[in-house]
Amino acid sequence: MTLEYRCKLNDALSCVQNEVISAKGKFPANFVNQHEAYAVILEEVDELWDEIKKNQKKYDYPAQRKEATQAAAMLVRFLVELM
After folding, report:
1. Alpha-carbon gap, residue 18 to 11, rounded angstroms
2. What is the pLDDT of residues 33-43, one digit of tens each?
3. Is 59:52 a contact under the CB 8 Å cutoff?
């Protein structure tokens, strides 16, 4: 793994962590159950998919990063709640 990739990985993980903290601040209660967690995760992935489909000739990378971060954050939040 290159140093550049490691730096990008650290940046991505930091963004996900910040998003989890932000979401937990807005919605402090744990997911009601696994079904709710799945629904929230699916909603975030659907929003990412919508961003990807918008303009395939000129992607909006910042918008895709935002949606990917939110989807990853909900997966991490769920993982933490399962521990």
Report:
1. 11
2. 999 999 999 99
3. yes
